[in-house]
Amino acid sequence: MRAADDTDLIGRQAETGLLRAALDDVVAGSGAGAAFLLRGEAGLGKTALLDLLHAEAGRRGCTVLRALGTETEEGVAFGLLHQVVGPLLRRPPAGLPRHHAEALESALGLGDAPPRDGLLIGAAALTLLAETGRTAPVVVLLDDVHWTDASSAAVFAFLHRRLAGLPTLIVSACRPGRTRTDGWAATVVDVSALGPRDAGDLVRRHRPRLPSAAVRRVVREAAGNPLALLELPVHRTGDPLDGTAPWPAAAEPGHRLDRLFAARLDALSPAAGRVLLLTALGGETAAWNAAAWLADEGADAAAEAVEQIEASGLAHRDLAGRLAFRHPLVRSAIIARATVEERRSAHRELSASLAHDDPRRLRHEAAAAVSADEDLAARLEAAGREMARRGGDAEGAVLLDRAAALGTDPRGRARRRAWAAVMAARGGRLRYTARLVEELAREPVPAEVLPLFAYAVVYVDQSHRVDFESSFTLLPRALGELAATGTEAFPGLAEQMYFKLVLATVYTDDPRGWSALDRHGPQVSPLARLCRRAWSDPARTAHGVADELRAQVDAMGPEQEAGAAWLVLWTAAAVDAADARLWRRFSAQHGYATQGTIAKAKGYQDYLAGRWDQAESRLREAEAADELGYHCNALVFRHHYAHFLAGRGDEDGFREVERHLRPRARRARMTFVEDHLDHLTGLVALAHGRYEEAYRVLAGLTPPGVLPRGLPWFHLPFFDLVEAAVHTGRTAQAEAHVAAARATRMADISPHHAFLLAAATALAARGDDAEARFATAFAVDGAEQWVFPMARLRLAHGRWLRRHRRATARHALRTAAHAFRSLGATPWAVQAERELRAAGIATGAAAGAADLLTAQQARVARLAADGLTDKQIGAELRLSSRTVADHLAKVYRTLGITSRAALSGALDRPFTG
């Protein structure tokens, strides 16, 4: 695909321009890292783009780290990560803390480092990249990441979310479809087929003697695939350059690229074919053993094999003797064309070539096995458990599953498969967990395995199937068995079961859950009991929870912290205390289960704290969760997104999300989500001044004077009901609701609860008492952090001041209007500006709506209005597609629109407030 000057790729100007711009930013030290994912079918030139970037980054003094995923090493825990950080650990930067170095060395099996907390590996890798970046910008290139091992994928997902501020560029390449890059925060660059002109230029560049007719046929048959364009002429049965010989079947329409190599593979001698198969199955290490494989064939056969392999163009030996394939598809083609017995024989040979303690030896032994082998099963189980101890849960699960298949004892098979299911769940492979659970359920489960089996079933049902029934039928019984035996399959099993039961009970308000939580409370930790207390009846039981939680977290050691993230964050969310301090405390844990919990807590807290520019990230989190199989998380993320839409008064957007969410929540009996959607319906009505509707909806959730038991986050509709009651003249009902909150000491639950109670008290106040009540609300400690309710309080105060003819009304209303505009809450801003006009203040009616945008937002908006796609806008302005999408989201909020189609009219209309 290279052009004549070897600095550009034919037909890839947009892609190279985007990557070069990103490299420019990293080299210039702009302070923001970036990540891109090149996505396209095999042979489209993704590796060529990585090669180009590799060369340019090297010329510009960057530290370039490169890795290649292969299907044969997909089961090696942290295999891809090893390729990236291994070279850095040979001479680690001085600033890398020793415990981080040990965590990486342990995970990668380097030296004699003892197993450390596998959850720290993401943080350790991040620190290593940051310290390396102090001397030169870092460029990480990852090829064929669809073959990435699950543990490396989790670490790279962790790294992708934390590139801001690092002089680091990560560019990965993968094929479309199922991939381990789900959840990576990277700008996707779709690499498509070349157009006919570029395709013809590429063929003529590399085959200048090929006749025009033959060029046209190659272009037609290759369908724009660069690899096919280069390989098809070689597959001619006659002179590949004369244009007269017939085309083989592999070149007919619909050909598969790996068939392009079939004829050359079939023409190789058995010795050459054996070496290629060993290298294909053995991965990176085997590539260096080519000389040894060839030596076994004898001098003459070895020389002939080398000559055949290099003449075929399928692979070549570099100066160091490493055998490198022409293209990753060659490896796939070699494996696909080998018989089952040929593959087993190769695995046996590879196993014999590795040390006894090398985990790869076991993998090859397992692949070669044809019948039950309890000794091999026991060794696989031990290796899998050790892999999990080092942080490779997902790969450990595969070894335990294979051990179950090879074992001879049915009870041992069930135990191993149950462990594999739990490991797979902890490693973020929910679909794999679901399959293992289904296999377990086909046979009787031994009594000693039942608690572990119950935990795995519930994990899948809750997270993957969004079904909570098994939580109430299996978990109480399993907790009872653990209490009776006094033993756990792994430390903290009862605690995690209890947490799952808390989660299911809060989501559904099922009385069976509350009863079981009461019954089994004595067998779990004070933290688990605190979590139950925080959620059981918040208006009456959550007092003091925030202080107790803070004390328990401060007293935690690293080992306790590793298993407590879910409980801590979920407890904090109950009392609006999941702040940045807690996120940072647990952010070093790279596993999706913990990162997903952090993201959920952060999403809700972003809404409360007015960080509404983060709204779109909730949708991205939802999409990533769905791709990973965590459908319950996806539902909760979209439910958080609905809060932002309702707060902005975006009725169309909210209704669209609600139509998606409500049926799913109803099927799962998730009253938690349904109640919040009802509350948000009332909030939307408030935004648009439909106060009677708002009152009717909100009173259905929390009747005046009643703070219901089964309504978590009751304080949000509490404030909204008081406002609706005041606007509809129901002063007595507003006062009754405030009195009920005072009676339950709502202000003692959290600073947010205290502010909302004070604000509601001010709204409900009558006569001269109102001014003092407003002053009291504004004086609540930390009140300014609750941006949206504070803006609403200022609006209410400004209204009161205007009606009492106070000059300070203008300042209050201006402040409220500005806050609403910054949040993108256009209907609320309109209310404030209407009050300003009533107070005799102009609100910018002569200004154009486009004047509300920043310069960059205006440029993006104009191009989008002209019909350009996000990718085209990005190429025009040298921005990533993700950045363009973020700009457009802010444009929509500012202009009060919801689609591209409305852009042109919105940009040209006058702004009237």
Write the layout of secondary structure elements.
Blueprint: H1 13-28, E1 34-39, H2 46-59, E2 63-68, H3 79-90, H4 98-108, H5 121-132, E3 138-143, H6 150-160, E4 168-174, E5 187-190, H7 196-206, H8 212-222, H9 226-231, H10 262-266, H11 270-287, H12 290-295, H13 299-312, E6 315-317, E7 323-325, H14 328-337, H15 340-352, H16 359-368, H17 374-389, H18 393-406, H19 410-426, H20 430-441, H21 450-463, H22 469-473, H23 475-485, H24 493-508, H25 511-520, H26 526-536, H27 538-541, H28 545-554, H29 558-574, H30 580-586, H31 592-608, H32 615-628, H33 631-648, H34 651-667, H35 671-687, H36 691-701, H37 715-727, H38 731-743, H39 751-764, H40 769-778, H41 787-803, H42 809-823, H43 826-838, H44 855-865, H45 870-877, H46 881-895, H47 903-908
Parallel strand pairs: 1-4, 1-5, 2-3, 3-4
Antiparallel strand pairs: 6-7
What does this protein structure show overall?
The longest helix has 18 residues, at 270-287. Helix 18 (393-406) runs antiparallel to helix 19 (410-426), helix 21 (450-463) packs antiparallel against helix 23 and helix 33 (631-648) runs parallel beside helix 35 (671-687). It contains 47 helices and seven strands. It has 913 residues and is mainly alpha-helical. It starts with 12 loop residues before the first helix and ends in a 5-residue tail after the last helix. The strands form two sheets. Strands 2-3-4-1-5 form a five-stranded parallel sheet, sandwiched between helices. A two-stranded antiparallel sheet has the order 6-7.
